[in-house]
Amino acid sequence: MAKDKKSCGDVIDEWKEFVWNPRTHEFLGRTASSWGLILLFYLVFYTCLGGVFALTMYVLLQTLDDYNPTYQDRLAIPGMMIRPRGEALEIVYSMEDTESWDIYVESLDTFLAPYDEAVQARTNVECLPDRYFLQEDSGEVRNNPKRSCQFNRSALLQCSGLEDRFYGYRDGKPCILIKLNRVIGLMPSKDGESPYITCAAKTDDSEIMGELEYFPPNGTLNLMYFPYYGKKAQVNYSQPLVAIKFLNITLNEDINVECRINADQIKLSGEERDKFAGRVSFKLRVNS
Ligand SMILES: *[C@@H]1O[C@H](CO)[C@@H](O)[C@H](O)[C@H]1NC(C)=O
Ligand SMILES: *[C@@H]1O[C@H](CO)[C@@H](O)[C@H](O)[C@H]1NC(C)=O
Ligand SMILES: *[C@@H]1O[C@H](CO)[C@@H](O)[C@H](O)[C@H]1NC(C)=O
Ligand SMILES: *[C@@H]1O[C@H](CO)[C@@H](O)[C@H](O)[C@H]1NC(C)=O
Q1: Which residues form the signal peptide (predicted)?
Q2: Is the domain defined by 80-266+276-287 classed in CATH 2.60.40.1660?
Q3: Which of 248, 250, 255 has the most ligand 4 atoms within 8 A of CB, as the residue to mutate?
Q4: In the chain, how long is the greatest CA-to-CA distance?
Q5: Are 251 and 172 in contact (CB under 8 A)?
Q6: What percentage of the chain reaches a pLDDT higher than 90?
Q7: Mean of pLDDT over the chain
Q8: Confidence class of residue 274 from pLDDT cuts 50, 70 and 90?
């Protein structure tokens, strides 16, 4: 039946001939010149492909600016954040239980360390208050590096950690710091009035929240800290801060507080989807 069935030796011989055929001088079924042409083709093909890729990359990189993001959210409403942060923006502690508030004190110590007078004096300059600190580039000529204004922690007075190193946590009059996230080029107000931060209790909580004190006075973020030119141009920039101190909080109650920025160039609509745009809410509870 299978009379022309190849023997094992035949198969091996056929393979050998396929790999190297001494008669036709073919290697794997192709002659040297055929292989040469194929290699040449792929060489040219991949060189062109690589060239096109490099060119595209080069053109793209040309359009990027080292100092400013090419794409920035149109939204000029900076986010806000509190310090200490606590879990899920909740600050809960017991006055008598030192360990329960020690983490907050430590967190504030760490956060405020770059605002020490010695550090500020070394890295930043004293600026004229109540006006923008403008350092524009003139055309293509970069006005870099740009200087930044000093913000000494002593400006936070009773919340600076200098007068009271427990930031009021021990006495049930805690301080909370509020910072505005950096937005490159933000000029928060037109009429020369510095933006300021106000905090209020959410519904029903005003009575139990008690009075607040703001540092610096009126909760202002001085105009001299604006505009911000970006991390690369303004390396030593210190974000201005506002501290609020709860003077007469009702103990053993949850208090929901919302702080917001007020500035004529920052319009907060009630329907704002982002709950951190120009405002921040947190829960505070002091147990005793
Ligand atoms: C910050 O502190 C330094 C050192 O004490 C002082 O020279 C400087 O005037 C202070 N700056 C501001 C803006 O208060
Ligand atoms: C930034 O701070 C360093 C010291 O840490 C200082 O040498 C440098 O001059 C500062 N840069 C600017 C632009 O102020
Ligand atoms: C705080 O605001 C009040 C009224 O708006 C103003 O009279 C006072 O001068 C402000 N204080 C500071 C230190 O800016
Ligand atoms: C503190 O708040 C309580 C009510 O929660 C009030 O009766 C008291 O007068 C307040 N004290 C001060 C100094 O405002």
Answers
A1: none
A2: yes
A3: 248
A4: 107
A5: yes
A6: 61
A7: 88
A8: low
